[in-house]
Write a structure and sequence with these properties.
Largest sheet: 5 strands, antiparallel
Distance between the termini: 62 Å
Structural class: alpha+beta
Number of helices: 6
Order of helices and strands: HHHEEHEEHHE
Helix content: 40-55%
Oligomer: single chain
Low-confidence stretches: 8-36
Number of strands: 5
Length: 182
């Protein structure tokens, strides 16, 4: 049995080896090198840089230096330190002027959505949306800014608010920094 196994391994070794190399390294021409460089260059240009994740301490120092209110919370179960940040939740409520016609309402809605898109693009708002009922509170926007004064100014610059169709009620709100919605 041992002789059979050794013979089998020897045969595999002999038949799996190639008789000669495709080309000696010294025979590789300039064209081959250029082709390799082009492939490498195309790969490198498509590499996406991933930002280095900041430590909780670094993030806390950065937020504090930019005027945000923060505090540490230690999870009793996991013993992890969670950085809590103050945000501002703006409730969009029915305003006193609701008599716009259908065309005016549609135009205001378009301007309202443009305003919210601008808030996201500038990094001032993190999430926004309407409520699913026809209550007094029409929707909510969460502002990621350091002060109530800034949040109030941004929320009140909404064209729907300026037109009186909506009015703003803002409250400070604390949430764990960097945690996703679940």
């Amino acid at each position: 049995m041992q002789k059979i196994m050794l013979s089998f391994l020897f045969a595999m070794l002999v038949f799996s080896c190639k008789e000669e190399a495709k080309a000696p390294i010294s025979d590789i021409g300039k064209d081959t090198v250029e082709t390799i460089e082009e492939v490498i260059d195309s790969v490198i240009t498509e590499v996406v840089e991933v930002p280095i994740k900041k430590s909780t301490k670094q993030l806390k120092e950065e937020l504090t230096s930019n005027g945000y209110k923060v505090f540490d919370f230690v999870d009793k179960k996991t013993k992890d330190t969670i950085l809590m940040q103050q945000y501002f939740m703006a409730f969009l409520k029915k305003g006193p002027i609701r008599g716009q016609n259908e065309e005016e309402s549609a135009e205001l809605q378009e301007l309202h959505l443009e305003h919210l898109t601008k808030m996201y693009d500038l990094g001032y708002a993190d999430i926004s949306g309407p409520f699913g009922d026809d209550s007094e509170i029409r929707g909510v926007t969460i502002y990621n800014v350091p002060t109530l004064k800034i949040a109030d100014s941004l929320a009140n610059s909404d064209p729907m608010v300026k037109a009186g169709r909506l009015q703003i009620e803002i409250h400070p709100w604390w949430a764990a920094k960097g945690f996703p919605l679940r």
